[in-house]
Give the backbone structure.
Amino acid sequence: MITGSIVALVTPMHADGSVDWAALERLLDLHVESGTAAIGAVGTTGESATLSVPEHCEVIKHCVAHVKGRIPIIAGTGSNSTREAIELTRAAADAGADACLLVTPYYNRPTQQGLYLHFKALAEAVSVPQILYNVPGRTAVDMHNDTVLRLADLENIVGIKDATGDLSRGRDLIARCGERIAVYSGDDPTAMELILAGGKGNISVTANVAPALMARLCANALAGEREAAEGINSRLTPLNRALFLEANPIPVKWALHQRGLIESGIRLPLTELDDQYHAEVLAAMEAAGV
């Protein structure tokens, strides 16, 4: 079981929008050195929606090849097409990904039975460990805890990224799942509390900008060290907010560019961070010491 801080990694790009492979390697090394527990590649923060299928697969392959087993690679392979999700998941497994992260089918708005059958088909088609991903704020579909519990009976469904930000739902899921699957936070502002309640880690946007701090926060929370975790969380609170002043990953890519870690490239329809938010993001970075 993967525990701790799992970065929802950006896909660095040149100004023309092409993937910056050298910058990707630098980011991977940074996370290994900073104590990040695993890399979440090509998810929402990695701009999976605007990468072509060949690019999507190549980013996963590049991460696996460069990291060389130093930490696990969790590949984002979800889709609103069950067939496409199976193809992407199979390609990630063939590339050597340690697990796959599978978002609920967006836009289609399936029923709970449709969600169950979608993820069941994926689990039966590809034997790689699979982590469910519920983020209704972006997908317009909410997977209920009862549906997650049904899916937890499938052997290779090993976890869920709960990005609802609803701690009562997260606690209910932890209480009802027991040790059958790992519950990860997908919401930086509430991650500490969910881990203290029994969650196994945080799949984090903020970890892109403050990887060592997020790794320490998760480690403290996993150890039940509330006071230490709260001290770090208070430093990260302004950053957690600032990185969502515009749609993710607009602010986080701008912040990484300010740190000199990536170029400013981002793909339409997303744009660079509006000038009105620059000062707030910089102040939040300063508060976190990055």
Q: What stands out?
A: The beta strands are 4-8, 38-41, 73-76, 99-103, 130-134, 157-162, 182-185, 201-204. The chain has twelve helices and eight strands.
